[in-house]
Amino acid sequence: MSHRRAISHLRRADPKLAAVIDQVGRCTLEPRAEGTHFAAVARSIVYQQLSGKAAATIYGRFAALFDGGIPEAAQLVALPEETLRSVGLSRQKTAYLKDLARRVHDAELPIETLHELGDDEIIAALTSIKGIGRWTAQMFLMFRLGRPDVLPDLDLGIQKGLQRAYRMRKRPTPKRVLEVGAKWAPYRTVAAWYLWRLLDTTAENRQGG
After folding, report:
1. For position 47, what pLDDT does the model report?
2. Would you tell me which of 56, 122, 144, 150 could form a disulfide with 40, CB atoms 3.0–4.6 Å apart?
3. How buried is 51 (Cβ within 10 angstroms: 0-12 exposed, 13-18 middle, 19+ buried)?
């Protein structure tokens, strides 16, 4: 995926973000094309409120319960809750995954054709499921579908990245994130990626790596 046009626009629109782009370097953002939309949403639920390493471990155990390591709605509906709990899923996440699977299996949510809808329609469809909020739906848009103009204003990393890029005294509110980020449209996904990476690179520099 080429991000040249997005980066050119972001540099012109925002000198402060241009400095971040210079610091971080080349954009390597790529949507995850493998697997299914259902598996991607299930993965997002598993990853909620966990560190990357812990989440990856639990998701690996969860995926291993399915043929070929790819979660499917029909199989998930049939799995006992105790089996899901045994791989490290909380009672709450187990309920969320079961609700997702039931909705997909009963054809209430045509998940594998979500990419045919607009961003707001996808967010509305996904947030109708227990345990899926706006943030999770935005992650699906960004990292599964590769939608170019998504700004996760509720994301703590985005707020901290913007605070650092703009040298703000206080962490910005979601409303302030949207206000500042308005000029990044229609490439706010790439801008968000750079704010996340800014936090990563500054942490690496502090550690001497």
Report:
1. 87
2. 144
3. exposed
- pLDDT tens profile 60-113: 999 999 988 999 999 999 999 999 999 999 999 999 999 999 999 999 999 999
H helix or E strand, kind and range, residue 166: none
- The residue from 14, 149, 153, 155 that is catalytic is 155
- Specify whether 155 is catalytic: yes
CATH of domain 37-144: 1.10.340.30
**What fold, for 4-30+150-206?**
Endonuclease Iii, domain 2 (1.10.1670)
Q: What does the mean pLDDT of the chain come to?
A: 93
For the chain, the helix, strand and coil percentages under 3-state DSSP, each to the nearest 5: 65, 0, 35
Domain positions in the chain: 4-30+150-206, 37-144
d(C-alpha 124, C-alpha 175), whole Å:
20
Q: What is the reported pLDDT for 208? A: 42
- Cβ neighbors of 129 (< 8 A, separation 6 or more) are 96, 99, 100, 103, 109
For the purposes of burial, counting CB atoms within 10 Å of the CB of 170, is it exposed (0-12), middle (13-18) or buried (19 or more)? exposed
Running DSSP on this structure, what letter comes out for residue 26?
S
Q: What is the DSSP string of 96-154?
A: HHHHHHHHHHTTSS-GGGGGGS-HHHHHHHHTTSTT--HHHHHHIIIIIS--S----TT
For the chain, give me the number of helices (H) and strands (E)? 12, 0
Of the candidates 180, 122, 127, 171, the one whose C-alpha atom is nearest the C-alpha of residue 151 is 180
